[in-house]
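Troubleshooting log. The previous run stalled partway through. Resubmitting the same three chains, unchanged.
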Amino acid sequence: MNTVATVSKVFIAFQDNEEARPVVEAILADNPQADAVYSPGLVKINAPGHLVVRRATIEEQTGRPFDLQQIHVNLVTLSGHIDEDDDQFTLSWNQ
Amino acid sequence: MNIDLQARQIKPLRQTFNRVAAYTGDKPASRYLEATLGVQPTANFHYRPTWEPEFEVYDTRRTAVKMADWYALRDPRQYYYATWTMARARQQESMEASYQFVESRGLIGKMSDAVRANACEMLMPLRHVAWGANMNNCTVCARGYGTAFTAPAMLHAMDQLGVAQHLTRLGLALDEPGVLEAGRNDWLQNPHWQPLRELVENTLVIQDPFEVFVAQNLALDGLLYPLIYGQYVDEHLAIQGGTAVAMLTAFMPEWHDESARWIDAVVKVAAAESGDNRGLISNWYATHVARAQAALVPVAKLALGDAGAEALCAVRETLDARARKAGLTL
Amino acid sequence: MDTRVTKKKLGLKERYAAMTRGLAWDTTYQPMDKVFPFDRYEGIKIHDWEKWEDPFRLTMDAYWKYQGEKERKLYAVIEAFAQNNGQLGVADARYINALKIFIQAVTPLEYMAHRGFAHVGRHFTGAGARVAAQMQSVDELRHFQTETHAISHYNKYFNGMHNASHWYDRVWYLAVPKSFFEDAMSGGPFEFLTAVSFSFEYVLTNLLFVPFMSGAAHNGDMSTVTFGFSAQSDESRHMTLGIECIKFMLEQDPANVPIVQRWIDKWFWRGYRLLTIVAMMQDYMLPKRVMSWKEAWEMYAEENGGALFKDLARYGIRLPKGWEIACEGKDHISHQAWNAFYNFAAAAPFHTWVPTDEELNWLSEKYPDSFDQYYRPRLEFYRERQQAGHRYYSKTLPMLCTTCQIPMFFTEPGDPTKICYRETTHGGDKYHFCSDGCKHIFEQEPEKYVQSWLPVHQIYQGHCFKPGVDPTQPGFDPLAAVLDWYDLNVGRDNFDFEGSEDQRNFATWRGDAPQAGSAKKGGAA
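Second attempt completed without errors. Output:
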């Protein structure tokens, strides 16, 4: 049941633009198991089972304060259960 | 493609959608008109709602008001989602600036405890009044007919949620989070608030969306906002050193004045449609404004003491004048 | 004074609760049942609304701020697009027909969603659910408007968009989306959320708004891709509302499980049928391709939907009924739909065509198990006939499925050469269906579906002619009379793309050399 082979993927996708870039980079830095797939206008990040977006990492990328709710501006779609607080935003499947 | 080719004659075939051209002729149309006119489906519905099988999904018979054309009820602000949300975002920015100003100068700390407590006592129960207004405007949107009337009602519902949240934020700025609970207890139990709560709950079960609109937006809010944000906050509290409260509630009177233009325009056009409409809406106004005034007597007294009764009468007179100007017979 | 400085600061969740459900109270001057009369008759048992998990925690201040920002960006693109005559920069004028379908069939659904969510946003007893639904109601109004405003510019230059609202209430194929959404809106609030937020938004809309919009970008339509992705960013919140509502119902009472499963079964199948048209748009109407419908289905339905249902298994929820049949259909439905619309191109307000050889080759490559065997020869035959001057337009009226209202063109599971027909009898009348799924849905609620405004039945009953038309006159042309009642501009809004006004204008405006129709067809002739 919990073997790696059967872990479902969560994903989150952003418009492929300058504002989303630090968010995407932060996600890839915080989630080594995640991969990014680019198609016209879009970048989709897939990760097995679980993915976290950390405010602190985005702030390191931008050098500026970041409110996690700002991700809504360039977010396109996602999949998985969401848990969010002021510092992080996670996606996961229970299995 | 290059610039030369673009300079070629590229003549549009038409200027707008037929549903808009039906009103304006085929000429370039504003975004408001394209977002609004003739939008709601009108014919050949498939299934009756299981929750209300006596009506179609969209049905003019849900209200007693009769309009030859429901798209006559235009919003003079010409709001569509983008202009609405950007206008509110700008107002929000100025509220943020006020919060910064108040916090950086410690203005809340400079208020006396008595004034601060009084402001909380008066304003926290109003979170729930705004919440009722939110529900009622949802009703107008859901049960009303024609996008011109229903779309601004949904924006208004969200605005009322915004008002409730502004008051919540104010409470959290003035005091500990327990202040919200105290306001809620007053709303539920304190005798001063019970007539108003009863009134609000009674509006929640009105089925006719136009009557809900009149009862909530014209009658109740038409008295409440000038009384609370005009007479109480801007006059009474400000004199006693509560200017910070006025700054942190500045959105409400500004928004009330802005949205009154929409409310009055809807009433005016609907009343002008026919003698029947005029009679109906005038009666609704008379009934609901009398009830609202009665329910606000103890609130006015709580806010302004003995001057409350007079202030409420003055507010009522102004509102009656507004209603007359909108074509109602009183 | 000092105590105020160190005042307790609420975290995101507590603060959001104070800003939403903290505003609500249980009414006592009016009974709660009268204030909230609609959320119990469906049989869903809710014991504790406090357990409702808020999907996203946007208060109005943040909502206005971020939505305002999105709108500023979006309208800047729409404006620049219009100023620069961006419509001439799209890859191919055939692409614009996808936008016609968009404004005819999708945009009105956004409006319906706006009103539907206003209704449930008023009527859930739980305040958290109400706020989430209300926010979705204004979001959907946004989508209706941004799509309208983006397509407004195309409408000035191309046919088939100017009368979309009128057609939505009348044209045969638009009864498919219209009946879908009215079915949801005429249900109770929990069914509505299961239908729209969960089954449609969570399981299926990615298929419309992600690969198709990426395709729009690829075809040079920056205006559409921008409204598409901008709308989809709201959908993330909506999908989350869907999944939270499902979990909430399942966690509140085990007796809810079979009801929710029945709705998931129904709405998966309804949504899947509706998306047939998206499948066709994806495979046939994007001249420059990003991914096939089949690939999109595998990525967003099979992989993502599969993960979702695996997750929900802990509540006793299984994959929706018909899932395997739907997965089998990924090889077929886009081709079957295009074939139907190609044949009924006289009666629908957009153009169809036979793909170029290069495009046919792409389809052969993407659909190795079906295209060459079942669909390519048919398209090549159509092209041969057309080039011989015999472009065929069907003038007969198709039989429609009573439930999904799509003409009977889907094939039997396991046999793509045989049209699937099902029927049942109710109240002495016979009803026809395209599939076991649609038949089953009818049988669960026959009293609802016998009300269907079936366009073909309505035409036969004489309800779709202008006043004064006499169908008994000799030489009466029923199709012409129906198109007149549709207020469809015959010869401009309909028929093949080859020879259309759109085709001519686009070429002239771009300064392309006038080309014979065969130029697009590679070396086939």
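Takeaways: Chains A and B do not touch (no CB pair under 8 Å). The mean pLDDT of chain A is 90.
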